[in-house]
From TrEMBL:
InterPro entries: PHA_gran_rgn (IPR013433). This is Polyhydroxyalkanoic acid system protein.
Length: 103
C-alpha cells in the first residue's frame, strides 16, 4: 500500500517534524494497544514497524521534495481494510506535518 501526502515544507522541515513527532504514531492507532518502532535508515527514509491486534505491519516513510510517502506491506488478512488504513495513514500523516501547537 502506498500513501502519498503532499507538502510544501521542504525536506529538512519534514524530517524535523517527523523526528519530533514519530513517538505519537501509536496514539493514532485505535484500541490503544499498538507497539510502534521507528528507525531512520537514511537521511530521508524512516522504517516503521507496528504491532497491533495480533498483526504486524512494516513499511517505510520516504521524505521527498513535495510528498511524504508511506509504503506499508499489508498482510493478506488485512487487505480488505486497505481503504480504511490508507485513509487513516493519510489523515494522521497530515497531522504529523502540521506545525506544533504553541502552548
Amino acid at each position: 500500500m502506498r500513501v502519498a501526502i503532499p507538502h510544501d515544507l521542504g525536506r529538512e522541515e519534514v524530517r524535523k517534524r517527523l523526528r519530533e513527532r514519530s513517538h505519537e504514531i501509536a496514539d493514532h492507532i485505535p484500541g490503544g494497544m499498538a507497539q510502534v518502532a521507528t528507525d531512520w535508515t537514511g537521511e530521508d527514509t524512516m522504517q516503521i514497524n507496528v504491532s497491533a491486534m495480533g498483526q504486524d505491519l512494516s513499511g517505510k516513510v520516504n521524505v521527498e521534495d513535495t510528498e511524504l510517502v508511506f509504503e506499508i506491506a499489508l498482510p493478506l488478512a488485512l487487505s480488505f481494510v486497505e481503504p480504511i488504513i490508507s485513509s487513516a495513514v493519510r489523515q494522521q500523516g497530515q497531522k504529523m506535518l502540521e506545525a506544533p501547537s504553541q502552548d
